[in-house]
Amino acid sequence: MPRNGYTGLADQQAASRPGMGKSEANKMGLFGAIGYLTCTIIGSGIFVSPKGILENAGSVGLSLAAWVLCAGIALVIAMAYIELATSIPECGSDFSYINYVGWTPLAFAFLWLANIIEGSCSCAIMFMTFGQYIGEALRPLNDEMSDEMRFRLQQLLGVAICLVMAWVNLFSLKKWAAKIQIVMMGMKLLALSIIIVTGFYFLIAKGRTENFINGALFNGSAWSAGNISLALYSGAWAYSGYDALNYGTEEIELQNFSWILPRAVFGGLLLATVIYFLANVAYFTILNPAQLLASEAVATTFSEETLGGFKYAMPAIVGLLMIGSLNSDIFQWSRMTMAGARKSLMPTALALSNPETDAPRVSVMFHVALSIAFSFVKDIDSLLDYVNVAGMARVACSMGALVYIKYRKVPVSSRAIKYPIFLPILAFLIAITLIVVPFVQKLAISGASCGLLLTCFCLYFVLIYPNYRLPILQWLDEKSTIICQHVFQCVVEEDVDILKEE
Predict the structure, then answer these.
(1) pLDDT in tens, 432-446
(2) Which domain holds residue 320?
(3) How far apart are CA 305 and CA 485, in angstroms?
(4) How far is CA 139 from the centre of its chain?
(5) The whole model's pTM is what?
(6) What is the number of other CB atoms lying within 10 angstroms of the CB of residue 16?
(7) Number of structural domains found in the chain
(8) CA–CA distance, 357 with 143 (Å, rounded to integer)
(9) Which cell locations does it reside in (predicted)?
């Protein structure tokens, strides 16, 4: 294992297995990649509460325009991530890119904050949302339960599906997890197609055009710079997930890597943009802005107005579609954890993977165990708010790393897809803007997020930089690695030198 301070250029340790250390038989192809990216971008938000943009835009027309503009913003950042992934084809996304240029203290801080709080909270919210909607679909069977018992049932359902998806991710990505993503993508598109077709039926055949004509389209528009900025900020989060494949770059077929990645990203983003726009048109056909803002679950309200008895199936559909988002979440964060462990910035056991399936089994179970623990936190959404600013700062640092690589001509993979330098500069400025906006909105929470990041940054110089480990920590690291090797049937995933892998 390489020691602390590794930059990706100084160390000369290549993977012990060819092809970025992974077997080609276990890697995903184009459709699996599109499935992961699409299921990550299109979450439950479009079904539950696609109103963040409308709250700030104020009108139907301006909110629809904001959805399209946000897609353009996402495309700029996504293109920068394509260049990063093909230039530095290592698992770990932002962590690997920031670490590659030698900003290891920052990489360490982002790694620990993201894995311990951000990733765990987001996963817990996903499987708790699954439990909530499946529990709602089963309401006739649990109507006699108290609120506390109903909550525990929802939590049990959520933990159960999380453990099932963890089990799936212990095996070959291509054999199970990627195929599940393709199925989930199809189900998600089918559910949204029902909403879109129904909405356009009422729009065209029934003449429900009152929200689009006679000045209603832009009635109530909030044209102030502050409102438009907040609308775009909300929309930017709706498109987050364009970097999903960057977390598991080594899991994509190596021979077609530079062909698959951009097509998956552009295809997934285009699909999400079209779906988001058409779904919102369908919603506005049936619901006026006031009704949409008042709804706790927009898809359910929409189905009550249009689909009759089918409305009872909507909670179950939304819940089941969370499986794809949960699968993507486990894929992303487990790979980031493994990448950090390979650089000796996390316990060695987390760098273990099964030699037959290439699955980072210990990292998967570590992420899932933390997520289940966080599901017992009462106000988990607020906890996630505390790290959102740090998450966007991580993106800004990745964009800054790309500008640094291009300006200083740092050696990268010969397979790199390169764009003009103004693109990562623009992406960097966008990311900085998305940091400033929440600071204006929630100064205390944003300040706490920066405080947590600074704490992790300082811990690097206490625990890592001296290149000395306390004997007890070294003993625990060695023993835990040996135990995990036996329990999970794994070996240490050796580090990757991208220049030697050419």
Answers:
(1) 988 887 777 778 888
(2) 24-492
(3) 55
(4) 30
(5) 0.89
(6) 12
(7) 1
(8) 44
(9) Membrane
